Amino acid sequence: MNRNRKTIENILSVVLYVVAGLLTIFTIWVFYYCADEISQVREAGQLPDSGVLYIIVRFYMSNCAQYFAFALLLAAAGLLLQRRQPELSKPADTASQVQGIDVIDDDADDNDEPSEWYSEEIELETEPEEDDAAEELDNRTEN
After folding, report:
1. Ramachandran category for residue 103: left, alpha or beta (phi over 0 → left; psi -120 to 50 → alpha)
2. pLDDT tens per residue across all 143 residues of the chain
3. Could you tell me if 68 and 27 are in contact, meaning their C-beta atoms sit under 8 angstroms apart?
4. Closest by alpha carbon to 55, among 38, 43, 39, 76?
């Protein structure tokens, strides 16, 4: 099933790249026709030569910039989908992550007071002292 999911993710990322490519080609085509229309309006004398930068930029932004932004977003989504880590989709191995918990008490009384939660002292396992380690080493060497 994991292999099938990875195949679907690869196909989806390719589809996103193709749509992004088509939008990029459409953006170039629209940009060309925007430039052509602006030059025709200038030649007709309907657009002055100076002080119209805002109008020209707004014309480009409203006609072709949105398609380029969508193409970038789709390409980024395809890239993120393709580079997605497979470890993120796997369930976590809690047994290897949690150490030192031997028993979980399912019979715990839920009505305990919070002050009673810490009434028991917990003994932590510690490393053997040097004397114990030296004694154990002596026992091994004698045998």
Report:
1. beta
2. 577 878 888 899 999 999 999 999 999 999 999 999 999 998 888 888 778 888 889 999 999 999 999 999 999 999 998 888 665 455 555 555 555 555 555 555 556 666 666 655 666 655 555 566 667 766 776 65
3. yes
4. 38
Q: Which amino acid is at 141?
A: T
**Alpha helices per DSSP H over the chain:** 2-43, 53-60, 66-82, 94-97, 114-117, 130-142
> How many Å apart are CA 58 and CA 36, to the nearest integer?
15
The whole-angstrom separation of Cα 102 and Cα 124 is 13
Using CA atoms, how far residue 112 sits from 2, 20, 116, in Å, is 44, 59, 6
* Three-state secondary structure call for residue 106: coil
Domain ranges of the chain: 2-88
